Amino acid sequence: KLYIANLVRAGYAVLQADTDTIWSHDPLPVLRAMNATVVCGRESVGFCNAGTVYARPGSSSTQLFLDELAWRLQLFQNHPEVIPRLFPWASPPYYSNSDDQTMLNDVVTSAVIRNRTFLGAIALFEASNKYKPAGPPWRNLTEKHDAWLQQRAAYRQGRSLPVLVP
C-alpha cells in the first residue's frame, strides 16, 4: 500500500489486484470513467475488499487516505508494541497487524466519520477469535459497541456520498 501511495503522489494511476482476481473484461475504461479518485470493491455487507483497489492522483483527500493506510500498515507491522498502548487488554502474539483488509475498512470509516479509529481492525483482531483464542471475548468489550456505532455512522454518511472518501 505504501507503493500505491507513492505512485499516486508521483502522478500515476494504480490498479492493485490480488493474484486470485479474475477479470472477464478490461476494467480500466470503467474505472477511468468513474468520478472518484479511490475505488475499492465493496461487498453487500458494507465492507471494502482490499483485494482490488484503484487510485489515481488529483485529490488531497485521496492522498491523505492512501498515506494513512500505508502508515497504519507500516506502524503495526514494524512496531507491534504500539498495540497495547491503544488497547491495554491486548497481549502478544499480536494478530491485528497482519490484516490489510480490516485496516482499509478502518481507514474508510475514519475518513467518512472524520475521526481516526482503530476499532474495526486492531481492537477486533486482538480480541478472542479463531486465530487468537486467548484474547478477551469481543462481545464483552466496550470497544464492540463503540465500533458498531462508528460503523453505523459511516454507513449512514457513506450512503449519501458519491465516493467512499469525501
TrEMBL record:
Superkingdom, according to UniProt?
Answer: Eukaryota
InterPro entries for the chain: Nucl-diP-sugar_transferase (IPR005069)
Q: Where is the Nucleotide-diphospho-sugar transferase domain?
A: 4-113
Q: Which Pfam families match?
A: Nucleotid_trans
Its protein name is: Nucleotide-diphospho-sugar transferase domain-containing protein
Organism of origin is Haptolina ericina
Q: What is the lineage of its organism?
A: Eukaryota, Haptista, Haptophyta, Prymnesiophyceae, Prymnesiales
